[in-house]
Each structure stands twice: as C-alpha cells, then as structure tokens.
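Hello everyone,

My group is preparing for a crystallization screen and wants a predicted model to guide construct design. The compound we'll soak is adenosine-5'-triphosphate. Before spending weeks at the bench, it would help to have a computed complex in hand. I've included the protein sequence and the ligand's SMILES below. Output in structure-token form would be ideal because that's what our pipeline reads.
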Amino acid sequence: MNPSRFNTPSAKKLRREKTTMSNNSDTEKHPVQVYCRIKPLMEGAENTCIKVLAADTLCLKTPESKAVRKETHYIFKHIFTSYSTQSEVVTHVAYPLLEDLLNGKNGLLFTYGVTGSGKTYTLTGKQNDPGIMPRCIDTLFNSIGDYQAPKYVIKSDKMNGFEIQTEDEAFSEQLNLKRTMTNPKLQRKGSFDKLYENDGTVIHNVNKNSLYSVFVSYVEIYNNGVYDLLDESSGKSLQNKMLREDSRKNMYVNGVVEVEVKSAEEAFSLFNAGQNRKKMASTTLNEGSSRSHSIFNIRVVQLEQITYNENGQAMVPNENKIAVGQLSFVDLAGSERTNRTNNTGMRLKEASSINNSLMSLRTCFEMLRENQTNKTNKLVPYRDSRLTFLFKHYFEGDGTVKMIVCINPSAEDYEENLHVLKFAEMSQEIKVVKPEVNRYTPSVQRVAISKAAENKTPARLKTASSFTLLPQIPVVKFNFDDLDECRSAIQKVMKTIKLRESKGNSLDKEIEDKQKELRKRLVSLNEQSVLNSAEIKSLKGVIHKEKQQLRNVHLKMTDLEFGNRDMQGKNEELHDIIQTLKNAINEKDLKINQHQLEKQRTKKQLVMANEKMTQELDYKLRRQRDHLNAAMKAKDDKLRMVKGILDSELPPVEFQAIELEEEHVIKSLGSQTPQSLKSNSHFHRRNMNDASAPRKRRSKSAGDVWLEHNVIKPCPLDTVMQPTMKKRKSVSKLDKASDVTNPKQSKYCLLAQEPDTDGELETKLYKADIVPTCGGGAQVIFNDVEKLRQESPTKH
Ligand SMILES: Nc1ncnc2c1ncn2[C@@H]1O[C@H](COP(=O)(O)OP(=O)(O)OP(=O)(O)O)[C@@H](O)[C@H]1O
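Reply:
Good plan to model first. Here are the tokens for the complex, ready for your pipeline.
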C-alpha cells in the first residue's frame, strides 16, 4: 500500500501509534544478523565474481568484460563457502534460534538471493542432504522428547493465542479429530521419505519443569495473496487469507491451520503436504523455482509445571501462564531479471509480483534504517506488501532476525549479486529489539496434569483419561464390626470431601479470576475493534478521497480529450492550408519551369537567328571577297595594261576608257573602303591628272543624313526606343540611282518587318554606310543589324 494513502491526519496517527515500538530507546536492541552462503560454481562456468577474503569478508569483483575494474568488500556475520556443509550452516545460524524458541522467544530466519542461488537448498535441502528446517525439527523433538504435554491440552484460540483445555474438552477434541482423520479426503498427502539419519543433536537448556507442545503452520505469499498450504478444507483452490494483529501486536494469518505435532515425522509429513501445494515452476535459470514466498512457522508452547498433589498428580502452578515462542523459516522467492529468465505470461506476472514484494522489503528496511539512524519516526510502509506486513512485528516488536544471503558466484551474476549484497549491507544496519519471553495467559486455567507426567514419558501423557478436576471420593466399605476402621474410613471420605470443598472453592475463585480475565480480554478486544473500526473509517476516508481524485482525473481526462479533439480539428485545418500552399508553390514552380523553357526556346531562336545572320554575313563577305579578288585581278590586269600603255605612251582617250572601266570595277568592289582605294596608284594617277576636280568629302560633323528605306506600309512601332536617325529621308522604293548617290546621304537603313514564329512582329533595321565611288556612284556597305521585337506583356 502506498504511504501516500495515509494522508489524512487520523490515518497517520493510527499508523504512527503502531510504529512507535521500534523507537523505544530503553529496550535492548541488536542488529539483523546477516550470513552469506556461496553456491558452488555451476558446471561449465569458469569465471567468478566472488572472492572470500576472510571468514566474514567477501570481495565482489567486476567481471573482466567490464570497462571499469572495481572491487567492493562486504562484511557478514559469517560466510559459508561453497564447501560448507548443511550441518555447519544449521549449527551456526539456526540452533541459537532454536534455543530461543525453547525459551519462549521469537525468531525469524529468511533466505534472500536471486533465483537459483540456493535459498531453498539452504532452508529445505534435499532428502539425503537436509537443510536447516528438517534438521531443526529433528533437533527440537530430540530436545523436548521427554517433556511434551499431552496432545490437545494446549489448544490454539484462533487469535494467535493458546488456551489450556480441561480433561473432557481435550478428550472430546481428540475424538473429533480422530473422526476427521478417518475421512480419506482430509488425510494428509505425502509422507516424508527420510533418506538421512537424525544426527541426534539435542539442545540441553530445556526447562525440565515445563511441558512443551509444538504447533506448525505453513503459508505462502503468492501474487501478494496469503494462502494456507495446510488448509485442506477448500480442496485444490486455496483461499486468500487475511492478516491480523493480535493483542500483543504480533501479526498472524487469520484462520490459519495450526497443527499440533508430537514427532518430527508428523511435522515432516505436514511440511511435505504443504510443499506439494506450493507454487513451483521450471524457469530458464532454475528447474524447480519457487514462485512464491513460503513461510514455515514452528510455535512451541511451554506450560510451566509442576506441583504434585498428595495423590501424586502434577499440578499447573497458580499463575498458570504459558510461554509461546515462534520461529519462522522464510524461503523468499528469488529476484528475477526478465531479460535473463525470458519469462512471459503467468511466469512474468509472478516475477513482477516477486520483485515488487522484494522491493517493498527493501523499502521497509531503508525506512527503518533511516528512522533508526536519524531518530525520525517516518511511516514504514509495511502494508505495501503482504510479505512485509506479516513480519512487521519482528521489526517493530521483539525477536531475533537472521538472514542468509545466497550468492551464485559466476561472473554473469555480477549485476544481481551487486544488488543482493547492497541489500545485505543495508540490512545489517537495522536493529531489532532483543527477544523476550512471550507469555500468554490461557483462557481456561488450572488443569491438573496426569500423574503420568511425573515420569514425563510422552506415551503416558497422551491418555486423556488421566485428567481430573477434583479428587475422587474414595469408595469405602464399612465394617461395622470394626468401628475404628469405620471411623477412619469416614474420616478419609470427610478429608476427601473437605479437599473437594477447598478445591471447589479455589476453583470458584479461579473461575471468578478467569471471568475477570475474560472481561479484561473482552475490553481489550473491544478496544482493538474500536481501533479497527477507526482504521476502517480512515481507510474509507482515504478510499473516498481516492475515488474523488479518480473522478477528478477522469474529468480532466475528458477535458483533455475535448482539447485534443479541438487540436485535431485545428491540425486538420492547418494541414489543408499547408496543402493549398503546396499546390500554389507547385503551380508557381510549373510556371517558372515554363518560363525557363520559353527563355531557353527564345535563346535558341536567338542563337539560330544569330547563326543565320552570321551565315548570311559570311556569305556576303565571301562574295565581296570574291568580288574584291576579281577586282584586284582586273586591276592588276589594268595596271599591267596601263603600264603597257604608259610604256607605249597611248593617247588620253584610251586612258578615259580605262577610267570608265575602272569605275565599273570599283562599283563592283562593294566593301572596299575609300581609303584603300585612295592608296591605289591608279587613283593617284587619276587625281594627279584631274587635280582640278577634287572629290567632295561628306562631313561627319554635320551629322549623318539617313536614307531610310521603308516597307510600303510599315506597322507603327510606337516604341519608346526608336532608331536614332536625326536627319533622314524616307523612301519606300529605290527607283533611280540618285536616290542612293545623293551626296548628302551618308547612311542607309533598310527596315524589314515580318511576324516571328510566335506571331509577334519582328522589325529588323539593316544599317549601312553609303560610300561614294570615284565614278560618281555610291557603294552601300552594311555594317549593323538591329532587331526590334514586339512582345505581348500577357505572354508567358
Ligand atoms: N550450496 C549448494 N550446494 C550444492 N547445490 C546447490 C547449492 N545451492 C544450490 N544448489 C543447487 O542449485 C539448484 C537451485 O537451487 P535452489 O532451488 O535452492 O535455488 P533458489 O534460490 O531457491 O531458486 P528460486 O528462487 O528460483 O526458488 C538446486 O538444484 C540446488 O540443489
């Protein structure tokens, strides 16, 4: 149970009251005694993580595979190595507890360790190599053999106490039980196959003035439920039992079957029967793994003897108190790591329950240690688990607590061993109150024990008919012949009657005392019940509060669900918006791609046009070059002719003819510049001869006059950028030579318009220089092309 569940002040108070015993500084305390037992290395395992340094010191080494090498030392009360025998363990650990048990003191011995580390082996052992429990049972009966009380004289009061029965009650109980035992359904299963010899160990400090009765019970804690392994009334399916606290604040299992045993064999038989019902299973790490925590309780009731009456009958002394000692052997289920056991399903659930209860044990120990070291009074969460709740009185009350930590030394178990050893180290720091003699006052008092007890032989003690309440009135025969004899017989009867009367009186007084006692007990029970109802009330409050919290959580969850749904709606909206934006981006991308394609196409067209133009120009250039070559050739020919003429001194008429011819040639030269022509010697000659008629130069400074050769009906461009032709003469047709040879014009521009492949208008301006020829003609030399392209702004 979670400590936070005790938040209400009343609940806290209630729990605190119950935990104060542990902080009683007046009582003598001693620490939990922790022993260590090392299991022999498994076959095939080579590496170990454990090294025993001394009889009480152990070293835990990190395995070689780990990066950081570390050694940690742990100190125990004693370490049992893998060579230690079961006998050594029982002598060291268990016999002192047995001694306490016979003196009416409590003891708890539990084994702790990971699964398969040898806990069950240590406590139970094997049939040919018994562990602590069987050896203790043998030794117990070896020790009290001659001092056992007759069966059923001491009886459990079903509230964790004992009462002494009258002769008749004991006798009728014996008869009842005999009847039930003949019912085959209720016969206990299994008998202990004793394959070992009782070693005959005896504990000598048995009180020879006492009679002893031994009671055993066997329970298990499985999945946090308590089950009675000796309860045969409910058949195979065991019932979950409640835990209760008795008037001495000892915890007990309500309605547990507690059987009085008179011999070790009887005890073994019961243990066997319980063992058959215990939850065991095969796991990866242990073939016979305990799936529950099992608790075998031995209670020894000591009845103080003995006064003898004049008839030789043993009498229970007047105080009539009995002492009860309890020794609990707890075989804890092993902690398990699921990654090693690979458990699933039921085994996994069991493992988780085992680990949870062990964790609760650790938490309780930690809290106890903290309370003891810091002198605080914090709530110890015993109620978190049945395991801790059942043993609460050992830590809060008195008793000796011993723990055997079982270790599997293989290197693979390093991690688990580390946790186990840390727990062991912490446990030793906890102190418990030293055991005291537990005296109970039985409800039925003053029973005279049979005179057979005089000899203290158990066989004789068993006969129920040997009990008597009052001395029998002797049967007398009166012999009236002998009056003295009659008188002494009457006196004997009177003496017996007086004895009976006085005994009757004392019995009356005893009954009165008993009634008082009973009343007291009833009052205490009433108090207990008031306390319980207060606890129930506070628990109800806690439950109510938790229910309220649960409701609040539920409401919050509903709110959150609504919020979540809103968020989901918004999320979907945003998702839609994102989708739309993505679509828009995709469209834009498409447009960009189209635009780029178009650009590429335009570029391609431009390149094509460029190539075409270049080809055209190349072609023209080639033609002009051909012309020039032809002209040069003709000129050379003429020069040669002129030279011949000059040499033969021809008349000037011929010369003029040549000049005309020359003019014709020059016209055809086309692209030849006037400068190159000027350099020509033939022109020198002509100029020299015709110096009176110098050629007119067209002045550039005066600004060029353009001859604009338009198509017949040009489309108006209406563009901002217009060709720069300040002075121009526009013609649509060149009819006569003078249109070109007009000396005022120095530039020529041919305007051509046509639609392009996209249906747009393309205007080309072919520009040229007009170069006058020496014959009065003119040459048009193209030197530039401008292209004007109209584009629709709506076009992509
Ligand atoms: N000291 C030992 N010497 C020889 N054999 C041992 C010793 N300790 C344990 N074993 C053997 O190891 C096996 C497992 O031991 P055991 O069943 O006692 O483990 P366990 O700790 O009780 O396991 P679980 O928690 O799963 O019940 C058994 O076969 C047992 O006989």
